[in-house]
Amino acid sequence: MSADNSMLVLIGLSVITAATPLVYAAIGELVVEKSGVLNLGVEGMMLGGAVGGFAVAHLSGSALLGVLAGMLSGMLLSLLFAFLTLHLRSSQVATGLALTLFGIGLSALLGQPLIGVAYEGIPTYAIPVLRDIPVLGTLLFEHDLMVYGSILLVVAVSFFLRSTRAGLILRAVGDSPEAAHALGYRVILVRYLATLFGGACAGLSGCYLSMAYAPMWAENLSAGRGWIALALVVFATWQPSRLLFGAYLFGGITILQLHAQAIGINVPSQLMSMLPYIATIIVLVLISRDRGRIRKNAPASIGQAFHPTK
Amino acid sequence: MISLQPRQQPSKLMGLLAPLLALLLTVLAGLVLFALLGVPVGQGFYAFFIEPVSSVYGLSELGVKAAPLIMIAVALSVGYRSNVWNIGAEGQLILGGICGGAVALYFYEVDAWYVLPLMMLSGVLGGMLWAAIPALLRTRFNANEILTSLMLTYIAALLLSLLVHGPLRDPDGFNFPESRLFHAAATLPNIMQGTRLHIGALVALLLVVVTWVLLSRTLLGFALKVNGQAPRAGQYAGFTQNRLIWFSLLYCGACAGLAGLFEVAGPIGQLLPTISPGYGFTAIIVAFLGRLHPVGVVFAGLVMALSYLGGESAQISLNLPVAVTGVFQGMLLFFLLAADVLIHYRLVWRRTGVAA
Amino acid sequence: MVVALNSVHWPVATVTPLFMSSIQTDEPRTALVAMHKISKAYPGCLANDAVNLMIHQGQIHALLGENGAGKSTLVKILYGLLQADSGYVEWQGARVSISSPAVARELGIALVFQHFSLFESLSVLENIALGMAVPATQNLKQNIIDVSQRYGLPLDPDRQVYTLSVGERQRIEIVRCLLQEPKLLIMDEPTSVLTPQEVNDLFVTLKRLASEGVAILYISHKLNEIKALCSEATILRGGKHVATADPQQRSTHELASLMMGDELLIPQRQEHAIEDSVLLQLNNVSRTTSEQHGVPLHNIELQVHAGEIVGIAGVAGNGQDELLQVISGEHRSSDADSVSINGEGVGVLAPGARRELGLCCVPEERLGHAAVPSMSLVENAFLTAHHRIPMRTAGLFSLKKSARFAEKVIEQFNVQCNGSGAVASSLSGGNLQKFIVGREIEQQPLVFVVSQPTWGVDAGAASAIHTALQQMASRGAAVLVISQDIDELMLISHRIAALCAGRLSNTYSTTSVSVQEVGVLMGGGSIADGAVA
Hints:
The complex is a heterotrimer of chains A (310), B (356) and C (533). With 356 residues, chain B is mainly alpha-helical.
């Protein structure tokens, strides 16, 4: 392998690592939004998952337990959101914001003792045989299990939404909860399950950040990735395959910022750090300006509370 | 089994009681939190809620913290009433601080009456400029203002960091990332000897009155409310939605920008990499807790200011992490959203399985 | 005494066997479904008060009643969407508890909703699959094609619902029900969205189903349909069961008085002079639409004179909303002369400026469009009236002046509400509509345009609104009424036209055109071509 190649492989690997948390958070939110719920608390759930996962992995020494704990933390936070919006019918926008603010505060409080703690990260697993393919082998088949998991998850969600009856019901609930209710489907239950799934995914995303990407805990570790994931769902026009593409694009932009100095681009680091946020705005503008397209793809009932009383 | 029964009319009484109920539940949950953190409950309660306001200086500090919260929250409530979800007030505040601070540094040691007004003007314009971006993107390109305004907050924070590490750094400051200390003519006059209470508190109250009149008595305020509750009715009545979006965002940008300038020209007195402990975000909670009503916002602002002081006090006297403040704020908003259900629904006991 | 006793007993003895035998002939025909003493209360109203309903196999049974009589509530209870407070249901003689729509479907009950429960973004196939208890996805597509052919209900299983017309959407609902091979098919106001020709086709399908043994519960307030279709009618009024009658044996007038009670009021057509001056003119109005389900308008020409009521008929979704937006100013044209009020081109003006010139409009949707649901009647009065009625002091909103105006409307139009401080959403549909129409009429407009003025409104309110429209015209205003209800238009308007797929037909005098001919216009045909049905 030449020096050039190894540099490219290194960059490629870091792009994948940077994209993976976005994939998890965004695919979860995609399912949530497909059911007609807009949960703006992704950032808060990610932080919850990050601190929960990191703490348990650190205490137990088991990466698996850590990942499970991260997932569970995200689900607990999303349960709070689901109860408020689905049972008490609070505003989804306000409750999502509350979840983010709460998640930031709670994770900072619980994470206080974890600052400065070292963690070796999730072990990688090289797929036998395939790993030996030159260049691509290292790039594609020597990752931790969560990277493979993220790809499998996107494929599974895509299949679920397109080809299963449960997926059809989920889409129907997002399209018209009134009609779904009239046919006898349990709208609130479907939305609960979708929201919990979104919470689990955001939790996974968070614990990937603290256990594999960083790997460490710091206040506000997610640094806006939860919001970027929300933008990615719009960018993907609610289609899982496009979401994967978007996440890797953003992973690339994040890595560009890290490697700029190395490549010889000499601009202040703050300017480079702005890139993902600027890119998010640009991407949103490009996609949103076609109102017809957004309207056609967006779940029709998104963000609206459902009242089964009538 | 408890179930929710819709009320024919939203309850005005519950509208007033819900925030108080939320506050009570937050205090109770806070006591539980103290217990979990291993702090004697009584001591924690005293340190967080009583100690900060048990002296004149403490009360003045409450005003110092409440002023920016109230300024931003009244403006946010205008936007939220019309369904414009600006959550980037923090970024608009930072830009106000940068622009106003830059004027102070440009006129460094110019001892003239016009420096401070110029700083204010610049701060207001800076905030408006930052808010104009999501307004433009929303009205022209249909881009969601929640996401754009939030992204711009991250960008603003990085911009401030860039400037105090570079062009605006104190030349005699040993490379510390901070600007020169503003001179006297560029610093806000205090309104109370021996405290940090500045004219920002008065401006905040003025904004409360102005916003109250705007919302309750003007056609513009009426249009904003209609647009928020029933946008199609707004179009039918002839209100132009885009104009309302522009107004909501620019008004908030101006208020947040001014609040940012007051921070750097008042309590801080220079530009630092961080000029706000998240006032722009906390103001979101203040706006909701205040029922999106200017007068309610005043009370809510004071409560939230107390949560900052309580956090600081608990850190000093009980060695609790300052992050406790954030948890309190988040819990309060949750309890409020939950309590709000009582405005539109009444709780009824219903025995299950009545009908055949 | 003995003789006397015998003479008393004798007739009874001879009558009894007859009586017994008549029961015996009826006995095998146990009712398919029988609802007994069903009651259901909502906060503030008793929607069903001890209602009985009995339907037999193969029968087309009408459930007749005005808006608000409790028909929908009863049907929702039968379909398991609501639970009754008291009373019980028997299915084929056995008492059952219908706790959910799934249970209802299990029994063999199928429901075609008044407001279709369809999913716009899904395909016909997916919509039908969602309505099936156990989906046989493999053969479903073929089954859809088979059933739709057998009953004359053509459908393409792969089309997306949002591309379909209202009539086609109803077919999805019906096919979805038929695939479950129901024993009882409930149709809730199925013809309110159909043209007269589509209604005829539907009746053919329903009669065929009944002849195959399916019981049909047909819900309507249209007496001519009931007489054409049904063999028995259960009549509700104000939540109470007032009669069970044979529509074939009763006159329309009898049925109407059972249905409406004392409220029976049939407005007379007003004859008064129509002036030559044109107050509202549409000049070659065309527009595109950015809405996903919007309908573009094509070259619409129309004149409404002072003192005249012009009706525009048409099935919903043929451009009515778009036309109203063009007239009200919610959609503005680049051509000032496309819309003229009293000779002045207003096509580029905003709604407020048009109001100042004397144009007042009432859109179809009451809550959320014509009124803000969460605002008080005072604020809702201010919403549109501040242009023509002084409601501000020194530029600032005056609560007193607005309240005075709102109270005047409430009094003049007999709006039942909890004072002018009541929020719009707390009013019943009929009362809110009276308030909205009253709010506009009290502004003394030159031109008044109203869409679906009596949609979902009870009989009393409907006749009050009709009278108000006629009075306004007799005072010299130009009135344009857009409605799906042909009977209403034939009753109150002087001239009539129909809107179909964004094109407006010629106008005809209502004294010289029949309902069937208007039906042809609604379907996009023309009368001159001899396409009269």
